[in-house]
Amino acid sequence: MKKVLTDRALKALKPAKPQSRYEVGDAVVPGLAVRVTPTGQRTFVLITRYPGSLNPTRRAIGEYGVITLDQARAEARKWLGLLKHGKDPRAELARARRAELRKQENTFAAAAEEYLRRHVKHLRTAEAIERDIRKELIGRWASRPVTDITRDDVVALIEEIADRPAPAMAHLMFAYARGLFNWAIASGKYGLETSPCDRLKPTKLIGPKEPRQRVLNDRELAALWRATEELGYPFGQFYRLLLLTGARRSEVAGVRESEIDLDKKIWTVPPERFKSKATHLVPLTGPALDIIQALPRFGKGDYLFSTTFGEKPVNGFSKSKDRLDALMATQLGKLSSWRVHDLRRTVRTHLAALRVSDLVAETILGHGKRGLQRVYDQHSYEAEMREALELWAARLRGIVSPPPENVVEPRTSA
Fold first, then answer.
1. Which of 340, 359, 324 is nearest to 252 (CA)?
2. Could you identify which of 2, 23, 161, 253 might form a hypothetical disulfide with 170, taking C-beta atoms 3.0 to 4.6 angstroms apart as the criterion?
3. Is residue 216 within 8 Å of 224, Cβ to Cβ?
4. Domain ranges for the chain
């Protein structure tokens, strides 16, 4: 039975009798029919001679409701066209699916996600790197085949970031892009043989990479200290401990209760969390100890700065930094841009002003000894670092809590 199928006619078809089924052919496309089962299911089929069969057979195209009548007719016509040229529609469909899968697996997003998972996640600064790569690189090139990214694409990206203006970020993103493409080449998985970053000179595109010199002044330090009171746990105490110790953000964020010796007043950063893969000692001053002792303790884990009851270290730094900047700006009226890493430079600058030796100051910041000194000088400098950090804590206390003005100290009687 053949008829011009319509949606109205398809919906009116009654279920087949039990243990049977029937078909209604379409008068528009030769061989197209709809098969009806006892449950009322309507499935489009194409009845024709397929490669390898002597007699006409049926192959399902799709269920009515999942595909439309127009889609079924279009697919049937495509199958008939393939058969006319001696091609098996099933094999061609499988080939097209494999090609689409390869295309999806070969996108920049696929390569970038594997790069983040295999290479970046183990780094100390993994969170910041992942955030920037997702925003600047994946956000721009996600669905494109990684082999299609050209030098012009990279140049356009870098120049756009530099023109914001954000030259430091432009240098950083060029380094991230170059590292990602070199990793993709080395992996051998994505068909990439040359990097679009090859022979590009970031200094020519952006200009020389200027070292950051931002140091927070006393008014900004005082505003920061007051703002941390409103931030509360965990970020309020987190920023204060950064300022008191000069430690790196990742080191403070990942501090665990087991790393703190309250009796010896020392914090031991293990090699796996320290940049130079060495054990690093941080003498704890009175204010730093006060902060640490007042931090909550959790039963699920021993991370001291955590939003997961101690199971994982704190993250989400960008949001807390935005809030901190807003709180500081309400006090200062205007706040020049600064980064969390600038706190280390601020601490280092004050240590120099306090006439702390370069060796001790650099040891506090965790900058390794150099040359022969690294080989022959095995002194820990714990006492010297403690003395220097005590001086810095006293100076910081004077900055954030200055004595009242116009107060005359009482004279003692002779």
1. 340
2. 161
3. yes
4. 2-98, 108-205, 218-400
The CA distance from 226 to 36, in Å, is 75
Q: How far apart are CA 391 and CA 206, in angstroms?
A: 41
As its CATH architecture, domain 108-205 has: Orthogonal Bundle (1.10)
CB-based contact 273:254 (threshold 8 Å): yes
Q: Edge-to-edge, what's the strand order for the sheet holding 32-36?
A: 2-3, 22-26, 32-36, 42-48, 57-63
% of the chain beyond a pLDDT of 90: 70
Q: How far apart are CA 398 and CA 404, in angstroms?
A: 11
Q: At the top level of CATH, which class does the domain 2-98 belong to?
A: alpha beta
CB 180 within 8 A of CB 112: yes
**CA atoms within 13 Å, Cβ hemisphere of 73:** 13
Domains 108-205 and 218-400 share a fold: no
Q: Which two tokens stand for residue 357?
A: 């030796």
Whole-structure pTM value: 0.60
- Per DSSP, helices labelled H in 188-263 are 202-205, 218-231, 235-245, 249-253
Amino acid at 226: R
Phi, psi dihedrals of residue 79, rounded to the nearest 5°: -60, -45
The matching CATH number, chosen from 3.30.870.10, 1.10.1040.10, 1.10.443.10, 3.40.190.10, for 218-400 is 1.10.443.10
Contact indicator for 21, 42 with CB cutoff of 8 Å: no
Dig out the tokens for 43 from the structure.
């499935």
Q: Which residue has the tokens 């030259």?
A: 167
Sign of CA dihedral 161, 167, 168, 171: positive
Strand partners, 282: 267
pLDDT for the residue 218 = 96
Dump pLDDT digits (tens) for 349-403: 999 999 999 999 999 998 866 554 554 455 678 999 999 999 999 999 999 987 6
The residue with tokens 């008939």 is 80
Distance between CA atoms of residues 364 and 386, nearest Å: 9
Six-digit token string for 330 = 């309400």
The 3 state secondary structure assigned to 101-138 is HHHHHCEHHHHHHHHHHHHHCCCCCHHHHHHHHHHHHH
Backbone phi, then psi, for 162, in 5-degree steps? -65, -30
**Is the Cβ–Cβ distance between 163 and 155 less than 8 Å?**
no
Residue 209, Ramachandran bin (φ over 0: left; ψ between -120 and 50: alpha; else beta)? beta
Q: How far apart are CA 399 and CA 269, in angstroms?
A: 28
